[in-house]
């Protein structure tokens, strides 16, 4: 997986990947867990959200009120206001606008309405836990949901949080769609399988570029990516040195998401996925000093990525 420079585990970045649905009291911020948000209390106390009052005006910043500190004995998730949009199905990638509140103090830690990033998650039991999956898979687009649980911050401390979000949309396509681009021919040819997953023709020839090079393979027709976007994409990566594949979101069966421009991914990604229409497919050839430098399994490697830009959720205007 394209490794972040820092784990997305602070409360101020939690919405970029999994939300509270996949957080438990022993979560390490790495993604999936064996538990998940659920409406049952499971921990010997009343469900945490029973003690929380949440405004129901979907689209406006939620007010989240409770007597702090809020005791969370088990993860809790529920629909606050049902939406009137399409039903959410297993495997859908949903995009939301949300607010995070510290359960111990009642302070707002992050809010899309106050300049925080949007967020989202793929609705699978593996990603969000069985109980939360049961809630999300009964939602419709336009719903307001709430979750209470834990997230691990960068110091390794589990923090209790309340998340309230409005489901804005389901990502409409899981592959690039648009007009053919005009690649230079300097790099390996890309072919696509029936589902859209890319392959390259082999190891490249000649010297690798010294700065990240971007080639547009498919020209999308959607909205344009901006700094601060919550980007959702599929990608595959290969080593320049021998053309071997080292990673692919396609093979994991789950799109990858991150907040653009916050240093959470390699510089070659952070700086070269702007001003692209959603639906585009690009090749990025990233030299080592804009990838992993001399660190880790990909030390000193120039990397080739083929990336399908599936969605770009903007900051609030």
From TrEMBL:
PROSITE patterns, per database record: FKBP_PPIASE (PS50059), PROKAR_LIPOPROTEIN (PS51257)
Catalytic activity, reaction form: [protein]-peptidylproline (omega=180) = [protein]-peptidylproline (omega=0)
Q: Where is the PPIase FKBP-type domain?
A: 228-313
Please give the Pfam families that the UniProt record associates with this protein: FKBP_C (PF00254)
EC number(s) in its UniProt entry? 5.2.1.8
Q: Which SUPFAM superfamilies match?
A: FKBP-like
* UniProt entry tagged with the keyword Signal: yes
| Region described as Disordered | 23-50, 176-211
Molecular-function annotations in GO: peptidyl-prolyl cis-trans isomerase activity
Q: Which residues constitute the signal peptide according to the record?
A: 1-21
UniProt keyword annotation of Endoplasmic reticulum present = no
Where along the chain is composition biased (Gly residues)?
29-46
**UniProt entry keywords in alphabetical sequence:** Isomerase, Rotamase, Signal
Highest taxon listed in the record's lineage: Bacteria
InterPro entries to which the protein is assigned, alphabetical: FKBP2/11, PPIase_dom_sf, PPIase_FKBP_dom
UniProt record similarity statement: Belongs to the FKBP-type PPIase family.
What is this protein's record name? Answer: Peptidyl-prolyl cis-trans isomerase
The organism named in the record is Brachybacterium alimentarium
Organism taxonomic ancestry: Bacteria, Bacillati, Actinomycetota, Actinomycetes, Micrococcales
């Amino acid at each position: 997986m394209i490794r972040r420079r820092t784990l997305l585990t602070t409360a101020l970045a939690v919405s970029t990947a999994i939300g509270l649905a996949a957080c438990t009291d022993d979560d390490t911020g790495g993604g999936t867990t064996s538990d998940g948000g659920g409406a049952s209390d499971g921990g010997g106390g009343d469900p945490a959200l029973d003690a929380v009052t949440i405004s129901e005006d979907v689209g406006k910043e939620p007010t989240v009120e409770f007597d702090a500190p809020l005791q969370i004995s088990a993860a809790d998730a529920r629909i606050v206001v049902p939406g009137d949009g399409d039903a959410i199905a297993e495997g859908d990638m949903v995009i939301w606008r949300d607010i995070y509140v510290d359960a111990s103090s009642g302070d707002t830690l992050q809010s899309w309405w106050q300049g925080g990033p949007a967020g989202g998650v793929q609705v699978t039991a593996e990603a969000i836990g069985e109980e939360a999956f049961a809630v999300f898979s009964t939602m419709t687009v336009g719903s307001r949901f709430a979750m209470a649980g834990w997230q691990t911050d960068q110091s390794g401390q589990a923090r209790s949080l309340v998340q309230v979000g409005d489901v804005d949309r389901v990502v409409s396509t899981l592959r690039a769609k648009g007009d053919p681009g005009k690649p230079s021919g300097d790099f390996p040819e890309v072919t696509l399988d029936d589902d859209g997953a890319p392959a390259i023709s082999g190891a490249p020839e000649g010297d690798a570029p010294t700065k990240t090079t971007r080639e547009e393979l498919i020209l999308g027709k959607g909205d344009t990516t901006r700094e601060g976007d919550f980007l959702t994409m599929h990608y595959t990566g290969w080593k320049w040195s021998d053309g071997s594949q080292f990673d692919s979101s396609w093979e994991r069966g789950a799109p990858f998401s991150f907040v653009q421009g916050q240093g959470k991914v390699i510089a070659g990604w952070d700086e070269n996925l702007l001003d692209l229409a959603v639906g585009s497919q690009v090749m990025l050839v990233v030299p080592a000093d804009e990838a992993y430098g001399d660190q880790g399994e990909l030390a000193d490697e120039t990397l080739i990525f083929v990336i399908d830009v599936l969605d770009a959720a903007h900051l609030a205007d």
